[in-house]
Structure formats: C-alpha cells, structure tokens
Amino acid sequence: MSFLFHRCYCAHTDGTHIPKFESAIHESQRTNCNCARHKFAYEKSGMIGKLFLCESNGNYNKIQCNGSACYCVDEVGKRVGDSVHVSQSEYMTC
Predict the structure, then answer these.
(1) Pfam families, alphabetically (predicted)?
(2) What value does the mean pLDDT of the chain take?
C-alpha cells in the first residue's frame, strides 16, 4: 500500500501501483489489498478466465462467484464454507 494526497493506493509487492484500488488514509488499517494484488498478478501472467470480485479498496468482496457457484471467502480470498447457486447469493451472510 502506498500513500498520496490523503489517499491509500494498492501496490504490488514489488511496489508497482495497481490502478483503480484506493481508500482514504483513515481507512488504511482495514485495507489489505489482497484481492487487488492477486488480480494484478493473475492478469500480468497472461492467464484469463478467473474473476476477482474486489472492493474499491482492494480487499476481497466477502462473496466470490465462479460460474454459477458463489461462496464466502476470508481476507486472503480462501473459500470458507459451502457454495450456493448464484441465484441464492443475495441471501448469503458471510
């Protein structure tokens, strides 16, 4: 994470700025940028097909979906619990 003009920006572990993911400095303690970093590395590898549902600050959205299955994830993107059909995702409590 890097800071500029009262904003926090996600950065890859090598220091490369990751565009589109930022938050206010006062929110920086809750920001880990894990989703932004994983998405950046995946896209940089040239692979396609995986979707990353990231919050605007770069953290993982608590609900991730792959095809028609949705599931809860922890702060590093690891699946937690069972998956449900995408049509039931609005009822999930992660």
Answers:
(1) Thyroglobulin_1
(2) 90
